[in-house]
Design a protein that fits this description.
The complex is a heterodimer of chains A (about 400) and B (about 210). Chain A has about 400 residues and is α+β, with helices and mostly antiparallel strands. Chain A has twelve helices and 13 strands. Chain A has a single domain, classed as Orthogonal Bundle (Cytochrome-c3 Hydrogenase, chain B), CATH 1.10.645. Helix content of chain A is about 40%, strand content about 15%. In chain A, the strands form five sheets. Chain A has a three-stranded antiparallel sheet, with no helix packed on it. In chain A, a hairpin with a 2-residue loop joins strand 1 and strand 2. Chain B is of the alpha/beta class. Chain B has a domain of about 130 residues: Rossmann fold (3-Layer(aba) Sandwich). Chain B contains five helices and ten strands. In chain B, the strands form three sheets. Chain B has a six-stranded mixed sheet with strand order 5-10-9-8-6-7, sandwiched between helices. In chain B, strands 1-4 form a two-stranded antiparallel sheet. In chain B, helix 4 links the parallel strand 9 and strand 10. The longest helix of chain B has 10 residues. The chains are: A alpha+beta (about 400), B alpha/beta (about 210). The interface between A and B is large, with 53 and 60 residues. One iron/sulfur cluster binds next to loops of chain B.
Chain lengths: ~400, ~210
């Protein structure tokens, strides 16, 4: 039975946890009980994993360093070329975002900006939680459009991660082709949805702007064809494969997203049916080796699956009108799990009188950071980039909320 | 190798005509809205005053669409101080003081073959010691104040500071502006600003 620890939320003085990869039920727990889980320290937000200091050479990278897209500090302990320990510290750019006491619509805009790169899926999770509390689900076409934007977000993100892996392996021509493709998808997104990162599109009960899908499926499928041909060329390069294969194994059941699926666990929040994925031919991509190459292969396969689902949605939904519904005054709380491009994100939300009263997120990056630290240990220093990029971390989603 | 060369040629020229020509693609809601009709508007960022939008505060959310429409103009930067000494070569150091990640990606996009800032003599550098300009993204988070000050102090003179995105410029809806810690010479509005707007800012700051 899957009873791995998925999330820990502090609500007042209480500790509540979520167990398993599908559940959304909260159970009271104690620190002593949490001690028996390998990943509890990371889920409690204690990122400087407190273990014995190795008697080895220590150097710090960051929090500000060229090559790192966001501010994060890496305490790296080495023995010659070999990494004996890595302690990532993502706390530097912690924004302490004020969520409690925000009005519902304002909180939705903040939620999109927790991780702007995942704004479609973060916004969708928030809307689903509010709509559940208010017992007023969005109509079917809106639900399909939310899948559409989440899958476009996944394609853009996966292309970006593979471009970064290619960049790390100095495959410069492929890298530039991939970054151009990423830009092409962003431009398509902006043309159809008004914003390159979907900001402001989601709203409670519907969508804030009219969406017309005419021609979208074909344009995305042509991007994906090109992506696949670049991938095929990259995958025929021994140099590229050598850097990815057998690098940074992560085979932990408590991880999420492409990381857990690359380790042959077929966990994916989309299977739970929080949106009608079953109606549009969703399938889970997986691999069994659990190294950097496996994670890249899962992403590549997911790009294809997302593209097929996008085409299917465009066949079913031509146009969706603008709609927003903030009229309900129901109070309560909800737990939602949504598959962001990095993996399953768990949102805990409480609302009362039109304002947020409780808020917590267990992001994919929080779920996977310890697996990176463990996987990169005993690798060599030059593999560090591949290990880090293959997880697709976003430090922005690892902060605290007030 | 031949494969890559053929692939590159078959894609033809990808690079934008900007800044000589107009941008080929503008994300409507990344540009500053303008009033087009009467309507009720509740701006979450308090960016609307006297029927016009304060660019520095706008978070590109589109919640004003009952009365406002995207302006479509990417050349909306405010240059308080420029320096012509950087005209030939301009080295930029990026620092993230508390961003959501999207501003970082729009800045990074400037190196892709479509924006290709290298053709204009603009480069990213991996250390502030070699930087002519500091490009700051994100709200001013407490733990990044020291690294921000240190990066600025490590830079040689002359030097410029860019506040990129609503968070860095005004704090947006998430926090505080970086200007409480460091004065910005160039203000780049947007949430996130379009890569064209960031490129425009880099070019205008060299016109002194
Ligand atoms: S886009 Fe949003 S922040 Fe900007 S003026 Fe309109 S409502 Fe205000
Ligand atoms: S300005 Fe907008 S896009 Fe940029 S970091 Fe802030 S929230 Fe993100």
């Amino acid at each position: 039975m899957d009873d791995s620890l998925s999330a820990v939320f502090r609500i007042g003085d209480e500790l509540l946890c979520v167990k398993g990869h599908q559940s959304t039920s909260l159970q009271p727990c104690t620190i002593t009980e949490l001690d028996s889980y390998e990943n509890s320290i990371a889920l409690l937000g204690q990122h400087d994993f407190p273990r014995e200091l190795p008697e080895k050479f220590n150097f710090n990278l960051g929090p500000v360093a060229g090559g790192l897209l966001e501010s994060v500090k890496m305490n790296v302990y080495t023995d010659g070329e070999r990494i004996v320990e890595i302690r990532p510290d993502p706390s530097f750019k912690n924004r302490n975002i004020h969520m409690r006491k925000s009005g519902i619509d304002e909180a939705l805009l903040k939620m999109e900006r927790v991780n702007g790169v995942y704004a479609a899926s973060f916004g969708t999770a928030f809307c689903l939680a509010v709509e559940e509390i208010q017992q007023s689900p969005a109509d079917y076409d809106t639900q399909l459009t939310r899948i559409l934007i989440s899958e476009l977000e996944r394609i853009t993100n996966h292309i970006h991660v593979i471009a970064k892996l290619s960049e790390g392996a100095s495959q410069n021509v492929a890298t530039q082709h991939l970054f151009s493709l990423e830009e092409r998808v962003r431009r398509i997104i902006s043309e159809y949805f008004g914003h390159r990162f979907f900001y402001g599109l989601n709203s409670i009960g519907g969508l804030e702007r009219e969406v017309n899908t005419n021609g979208l499926g074909g344009r995305i499928s042509s991007v994906v064809d090109e992506f696949n041909s670049i991938w095929d060329a990259l995958a025929s390069s021994r140099l590229f494969l050598d850097r990815l294969q057998t690098t940074c194994f992560a085979k932990k059941e408590w991880t999420v997203g492409p990381v857990v699926r690359a380790a042959d666990f077929k966990y994916d929040a989309r299977l739970s049916g929080y949106l009608p994925y079953a109606d549009i031919g969703f399938e889970v991509a997986s691999d069994d080796t659990g190294d950097v190459l496996s994670r890249a292969l899962v992403r590549q396969h997911e790009v294809e699956i997302s593209s097929r689902m996008i085409e299917e949605i465009c066949r079913k939904v031509r146009k969706v009108g603008k709609k927003r519904d903030l009229s309900s005054d129901k109070n309560g709380w909800s737990v939602k799990r949504v598959e962001t491009p990095g993996g399953d994100m768990i949102l805990f939300l409480g609302i009362s009188g039109g304002f947020v009263t409780d808020f917590g997120i267990r992001s994919a990056s929080m779920a996977n950071i310890l697996a990176f630290a463990k996987g990169a240990t005993s690798g060599i220093l030059t593999d560090f980039t591949f290990a880090w990029e293959s997880f697709g971390f976003w430090i922005s989603e690892m902060g605290d909320y007030i | 190798m031949k494969n890559w060369a053929v692939r590159g040629l078959s894609r033809r020229r990808m690079t934008t005509a900007f800044p000589r020509g107009e941008p080929e693609s503008v994300a409507p809601w990344s540009t500053i809205p303008v009033k087009v009709r009467e309507g009720t508007v509740l701006c979450p960022a308090d960016a609307i005053h006297d029927n016009s939008v304060i660019a520095e505060k706008c978070i590109s959310c589109g919640r004003c669409s009952d009365a406002f429409a995207p302006g479509g103009n990417v050349r909306t930067v405010l240059v308080r101080r420029a320096d012509g000494v950087f005209r030939k070569s301009f080295n930029i150091f990026i620092i993230d003081t508390g961003s959501c990640g999207a501003c970082n990606l729009e800045v990074k996009a400037l190196t892709n073959p479509i924006y290709d800032m290298h053709r204009l003599g603009i480069f990213f550098t991996s250390t502030p010691r070699h930087a002519d300009a500091l490009l700051v993204v994100g709200v001013m988070s407490e733990n990044m104040k020291e690294p921000l000050k240190k990066a600025y102090e490590a830079m040689p003179y002359p030097k410029l500071v860019f506040a990129v995105g609503a968070c860095a410029v005004s704090g947006g809806i998430l926090g505080k502006s970086i200007e409480e810690t460091l004065n910005a010479d160039v203000i780049v509005p947007g949430c996130p600003p379009s890569p064209f707007t960031i490129l425009d800012a880099l070019l205008k700051s060299r016109e002194g």
